[in-house]
Amino acid sequence: MTRDTVRIVREEILSDHYLPLKNVTYAQRRRDGELQVQSREVYDCADGAAVLLYNRAHRSVVLTRQFRLGARLAGHDGYLLEAAAGMLDGAAPAERAIAEAREETGYDIDHVQSALQLYVSPGSTTERIHLFVAEYDRARRCDAGGGNPDEGEDIEVVELEFDDALAMVETGDIVDAKTVLLLMYLERKVLGRHGEAS
Description:
Layout: E1 6-15, E2 21-29, E3 35-43, E4 48-55, E5 60-67, H1 69-73, E6 79-82, E7 84-87, H2 93-105, E8 113-119, E9 128-135, E10 156-161, H3 162-171, H4 177-191
Parallel strand pairs: 4-9
Antiparallel strand pairs: 1-2, 2-3, 4-5, 4-7, 5-6, 5-10, 8-9
C-alpha cells in the first residue's frame, strides 16, 4: 500500500484552551479502491520526553506519583506512578528529559540513554514521546523535586526496588503506558530480573 492514499480535506479548530482540538476531515482510498471520507477529532499535542531513573548498584528506580484527570474519569483513583516526563517546549528530547528528572525528582543527571520513540495514542492525538533511561546517584539528589507548583504540579517522589516495580506492573499498580514500557526496556536491556545477568 502506498503512502499517498490519504488526503486531508479540511481542519477545523474546535477548542484551543490547553491543546488545540481539531475536527479533521480526510479522504482515504481503501485497499479495495473505494474512496471514503471520514471526520475525526484529534488533539494536536506537543511532543514529549520521559526518563526512567535507575540505580544499578541498589537495583532501584525512581518514579513519581501525581494526579491524572483522564485516569480518574476512566475509573482509576487518578494517582499514577510514572517516569518523570514533560512536553518538549522547544527543547531537544534528551535535554528535556534531563530537565524533567531534576524538576520532578530532584536528581541531577548528566546524560540519558535513548530507549524508544512512540506515538502515544495515534487515533486521537498527534503526540510522540521520546523515552529514555538514566542512571542516578543517590548522592546527587539536589532537592526534594515535586515539580513546578506554578504549573499546578504536586508530585511525590517514590524510590522502589526494581523487581518490586516490575511486580507492580503485573498486579496493575503501575498502569501508565510509558512507564510500563520503560520498566520492560530496563529489564530487557539493562538490569534483567533479579538473579539474571544483564
